[in-house]
Specification:
Blueprint: H1 2-35, H2 40-68, H3 77-93
Length: 105
């Protein structure tokens, strides 16, 4: 019974990640192709590398900070709330930005 549950849980977890990441990956690739049609592979690789580097640096830092946090709301909650606020502000503030390709003016 335990092994079946774990297997189903793993497959469900993989399915959720595929469902959530595929639209973002495709949209990013299409956007990069619009902005840099001649070097789209290189541009997408640089964007992915920048995200991996930022994640590789920030995750251990914020993990350590949350481990030593002595807030009355707990160790993780202040960082979750701060991260949600930062993500919300980031998602809502870039709505008015319109990048143009040098080819289209």
């Amino acid at each position: 019974m335990g092994g079946v549950f774990i297997a189903l849980f793993v497959f469900a977890y993989i399915g959720i990640w595929i469902a959530l990441l595929t639209p973002n990956a495709v949209t990013l690739a299409l956007r990069v192709a619009d902005l840099a049609p001649l070097t789209k592979t290189w541009a997408l690789a640089k964007i992915a590398l920048a995200g991996a580097i930022c994640s590789g640096i920030s995750n251990p830092i914020f993990g350590h900070l949350s481990d030593i946090c002595t807030s009355r709301w707990g160790r993780r909650r202040p960082f979750m709330v701060g991260g949600m606020k930062h993500e919300h502000d980031s998602q809502t503030s870039d709505g008015g930005l319109h990048a143009r390709s040098p080819a289209t003016g």
